[in-house]
Design brief:
single chain, alpha+beta, 4-stranded antiparallel β-sheet, 7 strands, 48% strand
């Protein structure tokens, strides 16, 4: 299971919303975090989120049994380990 945690703050709401549009992704809450979970890779397009670079590169709060294989100005890809 691929799992990404993002702090639930206004700057990250669009990131979680874009992830939630993917039918293979489930977004819920664990404490003060969005938990973004999928049986497959999680891919989030930065431009679709509207995140500025500073917010984009500081958005990840944690991973569970996963690793980031792409995190650049275009997209973030998280894969299960």
């Amino acid at each position: 299971m691929t799992t990404l945690y993002v702090l639930d703050i206004p700057e990250n709401h669009d990131l979680a919303a874009v992830a939630d549009k993917d039918p293979s992704v489930v977004v819920d809450h664990v404490g003060p975090y969005f938990r973004i979970v999928s049986d497959t890779d999680i891919v989030i397009d930065r431009r679709a989120t509207g995140c500025r670079h500073a917010v984009w590169y500081s958005s990840v709060a944690g991973l569970h049994e996963s690793r980031i294989t792409q995190w650049d100005k275009d997209a973030m890809r998280v894969v299960g380990s």
